[in-house]
Design goal:
The protein is an alpha/beta fold. The strands form two sheets. The protein has a six-stranded mixed beta sheet with strand order 1-2-3-5-7-10, sandwiched between helices. It has twelve helices and ten strands. Helix 1 packs parallel to helix 3. It has three domains: 193 residues, 2-enoyl-CoA Hydratase, Chain A, domain 1 (Alpha-Beta Complex), CATH 3.90.226; 36 residues; 47 residues, no CATH class. The longest helix has 35 residues. It starts with 5 loop residues before the first strand and ends in a 10-residue tail after the last helix.
Length: 304
């Protein structure tokens, strides 16, 4: 199925939802949210899909919800608008397959919330996470507060949400908001840095062709950003391929038990873990995995 605001692809058991509103930096309005939900439903209906990657572009994963659509919203409309975003994030969180956010560029507001709903996140030096909502007189509306708390704890979650800080990729990785921090091209990053220095020096001194240097800086940064995004996405695919090789029933059970503990209580997570552990002994892949270990051979999983 073709979509107006996303690019949806499936290759070798890995589905990718690529947000595609470049002029709006992938801002999340009703139309793109409807496309995302429809693509998620395609994923749910296709048993051949083993992992889902959600991504944007080198400039932006998603620059938040579309403020123009929200500015004059009534409480009722705000609840309806937010409801679809909540549903999308709940689906990403509860899908029995692993989900990975490949985060290039900005992930603000609703975009940041969507990344936190995924099981894993990959970013780089140009990745920037932020919850700017308090500065607009609101708060995150698609359960970003709750998910941030589950991931980094209440003190850091309050820092992120209440101070509306912009968190660059390395800091996000150190906080645990990213699972992997990926470097792009060393050469292209160096070229972008030199082009930036040359433009700043010319602007300060008033000497040289400032317009040409500005264009050169923009081109160099664009190439470096694209290379970094490609490295981020490649890492996401690498992780997806690793996950794809593991038994799907065990992955689904692990995700369910961990989510139960994170979303509800540790006690609930413990109970779920015991139940999931027990039920897995009724699967082909449990028998195959243990037999392969005993027989010292490669397991052949069927995800049953």
């Amino acid at each position: 199925m073709d979509y107006a605001n996303i690019i949806f692809t499936v290759e070798d058991g890995i589905a990718t939802i690529k947000l595609n509103r470049p002029k709006a930096l992938n801002a999340l309005n009703s139309e793109i949210n409807a496309d995302i939900m429809a693509a998620i439903n395609e994923v749910k209906a296709n048993p051949e899909i083993r992992v889902l990657i959600v991504t944007g572009s080198e400039r932006a994963f998603a620059a938040g919800a579309d403020v123009k659509e929200m500015a004059e919203a009534t409480p009722r409309y705000a609840r309806e608008f937010c409801g679809l975003a909540i549903d999308i994030n709940n689906e990403l969180e509860s899908l029995p397959i692993p989900t990975i956010a490949a985060v290039g560029g900005f992930a603000f507001g609703g975009g940041c919330e969507m990344t936190l709903a995924c099981d894993f996140r990959v970013g780089g030096s140009r990745t920037m996470l932020s919850f700017p909502e308090v500065g607009l007189g609101i708060i995150p509306g698609a359960n970003g507060c709750a998910r941030a708390t589950a991931i980094v704890g209440p003190a850091k979650a309050k820092q992120l949400v209440m101070l509306t800080e912009m968190i660059p990729g390395k800091q996000a990785y150190d906080l645990g908001l990213l699972n992997w921090y990926v470097e792009g091209s060393v050469e292209l990053n160096a070229a972008a840095s030199e082009a930036k220095k040359a433009f700043k020096a010319a602007k300060k001194s008033g000497e040289g062709n400032i317009d040409a240097l500005k264009a050169a800086q923009k081109a160099a940064e664009g190439e470096a950003a694209k290379a970094e995004y490609e490295a981020i996405y490649a890492k996401a695919v690498e992780v997806a391929n690793t996950l794809k090789a593991k038994p799907g029933c065990a992955l689904a059970s692990a995700k369910a038990a961990i989510n139960k503990a994170a979303i509800e209580t540790v006690a609930a997570g413990k109970a779920a873990e015991t139940t999931e552990f027990t039920l897995l002994f009724n699967t082909h892949d449990q028998k195959e995995g243990m037999a392969a270990m005993i027989e010292k051979r490669q397991a052949v999983f069927t995800n049953n």
